[in-house]
Specification:
2 domains; SH3 type barrels; Ribosomal protein L2, domain 3; globular; 4 helices; alpha+beta; 13% helix
Length: 251
């Protein structure tokens, strides 16, 4: 979204994404320019939203009495649909369309109903002073540059995960093909195939090409750890580990 005040013309459906999109208009001289953004939940036609990508405008500083108090600034800027750099967002605010680079596009929380939470500014830490801590929907906490932009609110169409496709044909339109269990195939078609009954021959779960599928095949080297990850997202546990944890809890 270009810097400045925009008017929401209408909310539209986008067949290429799960969230809705908003058509914006901005007057520049004698010309009206149009652009699209991912709509925030609750955004309606006729509303005014603003982008602060290029910083705080002079009219807003004068309106606040030539002060740059963070609390007063947040009351004027942190409204759903507004685009702000992360360092202008107060901790605890829900944001989406979070960028990864200063002038780059949004990378995190772009699908329907998703959001991230700004949880810290690292002002007391010299090493990470230029970064803001953001907690993603998965539970992962990341260091993201403070000049990266985000949109205030939650991505629209929050009930998307409750939709019912209704028939197998609609799944095929979405590119979802039928899934067949490996144990139901012939031995020549899958490593789990063949034999009598539903047995996979006491073998660890593998893909049709023989690669371990349940946490056994690691793809990231230990030397290539992402240093921007403060807290990794919770990983799925095996049935055995879940059962052991449940028994320990009941004791």
């Amino acid at each position: 979204m270009a810097p400045g005040q925009h008017r929401v013309e209408r909310i539209e459906y986008d067949p290429g994404r799960s969230a809705h999109i908003a058509l914006l208009s901005i007057k520049e001289g004698n010309k009206i320019n149009y652009s699209y953004i991912v709509a925030s939940d609750g955004l309606r036609a006729g509303q005014q939203i603003e982008s602060f990508r290029s910083g705080i405008p002079e009219r807003l500083i004068k309106e606040l009495g030539d002060t740059s108090d963070a609390g007063l600034l947040a009351t004027k800027t942190c409204h759903p649909g507004n685009c702000l750099p992360l360092h202008m967002v107060p901790p605890g605010t829900a944001v989406f369309n979070v960028g990864k680079a200063k002038h780059g596009p949004a990378k995190f929380c772009r699908s329907a109903g998703t959001y991230a939470t700004v949880i810290g500014k690292n002002e007391g830490d010299a090493k990470w002073a230029d970064f803001v801590d953001v907690k993603l929907k998965s539970g992962e906490v990341l260091h993201i540059q403070k000049d990266c932009c985000c949109t205030i609110g939650i991505a629209s169409n929050v009930d998307y995960n409750h939709r019912q496709l209704g028939k197998a044909g609609r799944s095929r339109w979405l590119g979802i093909r039928p899934t067949v269990r490996g144990v139901a195939m012939n031995a020549s078609d899958h490593p789990h195939g063949g034999g009598r009954g539903k047995s996979k021959g006491n073998r660890n779960p593998v893909s049709p090409w023989g690669i371990l599928t349940k946490g056994g095949y690691k793809t990231r080297k230990k030397s290539k750890v992402n240093r921007y990850v403060v807290k990794a997202r919770p990983r799925s546990e095996s049935k055995k580990a879940k059962k052991a944890k449940k028994l320990k809890k009941n004791k």
